[in-house]
TrEMBL record:
<keyword id="KW-0813">Transport</keyword>
<dbReference type="GO" id="GO:0030276">
    <property type="term" value="F:clathrin binding"/>
</dbReference>
<dbReference type="InterPro" id="IPR011989">
    <property type="entry name" value="ARM-like"/>
</dbReference>
<dbReference type="InterPro" id="IPR016024">
    <property type="entry name" value="ARM-type_fold"/>
</dbReference>
<dbReference type="InterPro" id="IPR016342">
    <property type="entry name" value="AP_complex_bsu_1_2_4"/>
</dbReference>
<feature type="domain" description="Beta-adaptin appendage C-terminal subdomain">
    <location>
        <begin position="720"/>
        <end position="837"/>
    </location>
</feature>
<dbReference type="InterPro" id="IPR009028">
    <property type="entry name" value="Coatomer/calthrin_app_sub_C"/>
</dbReference>
<comment type="subunit">
    <text>Adaptor protein complexes are heterotetramers composed of two large adaptins (beta-type subunit and alpha-type or delta-type or epsilon-type or gamma-type subunit), a medium adaptin (mu-type subunit) and a small adaptin (sigma-type subunit).</text>
</comment>
<feature type="region of interest" description="Disordered">
    <location>
        <begin position="1"/>
        <end position="25"/>
    </location>
</feature>
<feature type="compositionally biased region" description="Basic and acidic residues">
    <location>
        <begin position="638"/>
        <end position="650"/>
    </location>
</feature>
<dbReference type="GO" id="GO:0012505">
    <property type="term" value="C:endomembrane system"/>
</dbReference>
<dbReference type="Pfam" id="PF01602">
    <property type="entry name" value="Adaptin_N"/>
</dbReference>
<dbReference type="GO" id="GO:0030131">
    <property type="term" value="C:clathrin adaptor complex"/>
</dbReference>
<dbReference type="InterPro" id="IPR002553">
    <property type="entry name" value="Clathrin/coatomer_adapt-like_N"/>
</dbReference>
<dbReference type="Pfam" id="PF09066">
    <property type="entry name" value="B2-adapt-app_C"/>
</dbReference>
<protein>
    <recommendedName>
        <fullName>Beta-adaptin-like protein</fullName>
    </recommendedName>
</protein>
<keyword id="KW-0472">Membrane</keyword>
Length: 842
């Protein structure tokens, strides 16, 4: 027989060259299994280390399972740990092997050494094999009654693991009752903390199917139990303290005296060295005082110093986490932090993400007395070698200017930025100057004098070039070279890759044409021709729209493209107040660090009460949807829209589809009728379209497509009936308000008669009570009033909760609706709006 072929690859010293080496390990372990010679434990350690190292790099060493178990009969704790690690790894993937470990693990659970008992119980409960749970009940019962606290700590977590493997086995063995006894009577605080964690998880899971579990869960939020934990909180570890504080947040005190008692008990937790404990305590203080405006403001003052101390001490990562929470508080109450603005100055050695957050906070805390110093500091950052931070600092200067603080000095600084020989500084300054001119048109003369000296060839960034082109069109009468600069940009149309710039260029040339026709006529013709031939649909459509407008009537085109403008008073916020409030509700969580609610970044199974429909993203325009209207309305993605956007999307178009067409002003119908003969109609059937369909974009483009028939209306749901005798106590209302998710949030108009009737605040509750909607609390002073209402569905226990904020001067009301039955929230909203519309008129 020929010898085996030799390979050039040499085996790694940390890796077996073949099955023979694993076989050698197996034989060596078998030899040592029953040996009692001195030094045998050291030999076992070396072999165990080899087995673990092979297992770690992915080599299958399951064949030595029996020998490993036999060698585990030793009092050496290190050997025990390595053996348990090996057993736990292979038991998960091979349940048959797990059965071999039961005997020796059960034997170790009765060992004299409490460390071995605990390790064995932990390994036994970690096997995660459903058909072996019967062997786990006995050791867990013994572990829960063990004299050693470490064994009890492990046993409590083992019960929780058992619950996830087999709910029935855990409940039938009456483990929750044993855990409750330990929770109230055990002297070891870590055992108490683990019991609290396990019981919360078990009772939360069982509350939906068991009334007893629901009562037990509510008992955790009772006054005696909360005070029992608070009185022992100093004995707990940092992790356990955070667990207790998270539970306290859910507690609803009976009166203000309880609130002050709890805050007095937790006062010293604000001085804790651990940042997680400080943030958890701050969350308790903030949530307990939400309904007490004056005390809530004092809480901001109280927690300010500990949080600022945490920011300045510790790692950059910890500083960023605490700073994110400070950022949230600053945005809610900037006046509280206005005197501490120097704490938010950037340090040279801080990471960029910390500096960026500090710049946002400097923008928020700026006021009339601190603006000059803050802007001076920000201007120093503009020359920073870190280009993203330099950009952010320039934007921060612009934001402060838009807040109307010391505008004169800030405009001078921004104009100095335009003269700096750095492209990114010039680009950011151009964008900000455009926004400043939209809000402060009186500064146009000074700004345009500087902007006119900037060559468009030196501006390459799309947003900056678009801003420069906007100024060229808007103030072309004050810039002598504006028509010629626009003409040169039009000549280089094909070299411009940004659709945003080309859209601005079209509009700017149109505006310039209306102000200086002779000089701009050539550029306008070239721009329209290039736009009509453009591959980008938006650019093509705008060019065609402008061409048709000019073809129809130049005067009308000027009124459309360049109407008289009013200064912008307020720029749109990037986040709605609802999203900010929800982030505040999730204080001391990743939601604050990510600056978005948890449902936006967690998997669906972990969203809890913030689940929302995923079908919205798959809706097709112009097709019917299977998603009910109330689901689309209640979708949390609506929170990303501003109120005007919501009103447009919920306006006309009650055809049952997910898409609603934009509203058109009926006064334009006469204009449409005049223009219609000039539009070519390729389809004769289109001539019979209704006036509304004649405004469709297809007819505007002369395509003459037939109108799509309206979809069939779905049958309307039965009317909602409310219980006129519904009752709800304030404590239950407050607890439900915290637990239930927001179903709907809308802005409505109040009739002038209704706004006038609100001079007597109790008039609205009396009116709505006639519609079976009851008021539980009210407050505020004119013109800002706030009411809390509740209603109950007739013949059912389903409750609706309503927060109603009314501004009598603007005759606007903001309503927020929460409901047990979210599917009826839209029907209730309609009923509430109907009742509100009749207020003051009857």
């Amino acid at each position: 027989m020929a010898p085996p072929a030799q390979t050039n690859r040499s085996p790694s010293p940390s890796q077996p060259s073949g099955k023979s080496e694993v076989t050698d390990l197996k034989s060596q372990l078998r030899q040592l299994a029953g040996s009692r010679l001195p030094g045998v434990d050291d030999s076992k350690r070396e072999l165990f280390k080899k087995v673990i190292s092979y297992m770690t790099i992915g080599i299958d060493v399951s064949s030595v399972f029996g020998e490993m178990v036999m060698c585990s009969a030793t009092s050496d704790i290190v050997l025990k740990k390595m053996c348990y690690l090996y057993v736990g790894n292979y038991a998960k993937v091979n349940p048959d092997l797990a059965l071999l470990t039961i005997n020796f693990l059960q034997r170790d659970c009765k060992d004299e050494d409490p460390m071995i008992r605990g390790l064995a119980l932990r390994s036994l409960s970690s096997l995660n094999v459903a058909n072996l749970v019967e062997y786990l009940v006995g050791p867990l019962n013994a572990g829960l009654k063990d004299n050693n606290s470490y064994v009890r700590i492990v046993a409590v977590i083992g019960v929780l693991k058992l619950y996830h493997i087999s709910v029935t086995t855990c409940i039938d063995a009456d483990f929750p009752a044993v855990l409750k006894h330990l929770l109230l009577n055990d002297q070891d605080t870590q055992v108490v903390a683990n019991c609290l964690l396990a019981l919360q998880e078990i009772w939360n899971g069982e509350a939906s199917t068991s009334g007893d579990a629901m009562k037990e869960r509510e008992a955790l939020l009772s006054k005696p139990f909360i005070y029992y934990l608070l009185n022992r909180i100093k004995e707990f570890s940092e992790w356990a303290q955070c667990l207790v504080l998270d539970l306290v947040v859910k507690y609803v005190p009976a009166d203000s005296n309880e609130i002050f008692d709890i805050m007095n008990l937790l006062e010293d937790r604000l001085q804790h060295a651990n940042g997680a404990v400080v943030l958890a305590t701050a969350k308790v203080f903030l949530h307990l005082t939400l309904s007490m405006t004056d005390v809530h403001q004092q809480v901001y003052e109280r927690i300010k110093a500990p949080l600022l101390t945490l920011v300045s001490s510790g790692s950059p990562e910890q500083s960023y986490a605490v700073l994110s929470h400070l950022h949230l508080l600053v945005m809610r109450a900037p006046y509280v932090f206005s005197a501490d603005y120097k704490h938010f100055y950037c340090q040279y050695n801080e990471p960029s993400y910390v500096k960026k957050l500090k710049l946002e906070m400097l923008t928020a805390v700026a006021n009339e007395s601190s603006t000059y110093e803050i802007v001076t500091e920000l201007c120093e950052y503009a020359a920073n070698v870190d280009i993203p931070i330099a950009r952010e600092s320039i934007r921060a200067v612009g934001k402060i200017a838009l807040q109307q603080y010391d505008v004169n000095a800030i405009v001078d600084r921004l104009l100095q930025f335009l003269e700096m020989e750095k492209d990114y500084v010039t680009a950011e300054a151009l964008v900000l100057v455009k926004d400043l001119l939209r809000k402060y048109p009186q500064w146009s003369h000074d700004c345009i004098a500087v902007v006119g000296n900037i060559s468009s060839q030196n501006v390459q960034e799309p947003k900056a070039k678009a801003a420069l082109i906007w100024m060229l069109g808007e103030y072309s009468q004050d810039m002598s070279d504006a028509p010629y600069i626009l003409e040169s940009l039009t000549e280089n149309w094909d070299e411009e890759h940004s659709a945003e710039v080309r859209l601005h260029l079209l509009t700017a040339v149109m505006k310039c044409f209306f102000k200086r026709p002779p000089e701009t006529q050539k550029a306008l013709g070239a721009a329209l021709a290039a736009g009509l031939a453009d591959f980008h649909q938006d650019v093509h459509d705008r060019a065609l729209f402008y061409y048709r407008l000019l073809q129809h009537n130049v005067t009308v085109a000027e009124r459309v493209v360049n109407p008289p403008k009013q200064a912008v008073s307020v720029f749109a916020d990037t986040q709605s107040s609802e999203v900010k409030d929800r982030i505040f509700d999730e204080f001391n969580s990743l939601s604050v660090v990510y600056q978005k609610p948890s449902y936006m970044f967690t998997d669906k199974e972990h969203r809890g009460p913030f689940e929302f429909s995923d079908e919205l993203g798959s809706l097709a325009i112009g097709t019917e949807s299977d998603v009910p209207a109330h689901v689309v309305e209640a979708n949390d993605k609506d929170l990303l829209l501003g109120t005007p956007d919501k009103e447009e999307s919920r306006g006309a178009g009650t055809n049952g589809s997910a898409y609603t067409a934009p509203l058109y002003d009926t006064s334009l119908l006469s204009t449409s009728t005049q223009v219609q003969p000039e539009l070519p109609i390729s389809n004769p059937a289109a001539a019979g379209l209704s006036p509304q369909s004649s405004l469709a974009i297809d007819d505007l483009l002369g395509l003459g497509l037939p109108a799509t028939p309206a979809p069939t209306l779905a049958p309307s749901p039965p009317p909602l009936k409310l219980n006129a005798g519904a009752a709800l106590d304030p404590g239950t209302f407050q607890q439900k308000w915290r637990q239930l998710p927001i179903c709907l949030s809308e802005e409505l108009s109040v009739s002038p008669q209704g706004a006038a009737a609100l001079t007597t605040p109790q008039a609205l509750p009396r009116h709505l009570q006639g519609h079976s909607i009851h008021c539980i609390a009210s407050g505020g002073q004119a013109p800002n009033l706030k009411f809390f209402f509740f209603a109950q569905k007739a013949e059912e226990s389903s409750i609706f909760l309503i927060e109603c904020k009314i501004n009598t001067s603007s005759a606007k009301t903001q309503i927020t609706i929460k409901a047990d039955d979210q599917s009826m929230s839209q029907a209730f909203s309609t009923l509430f709006q109907s009742a509100l519309s009749r207020f003051g008129t009857s």
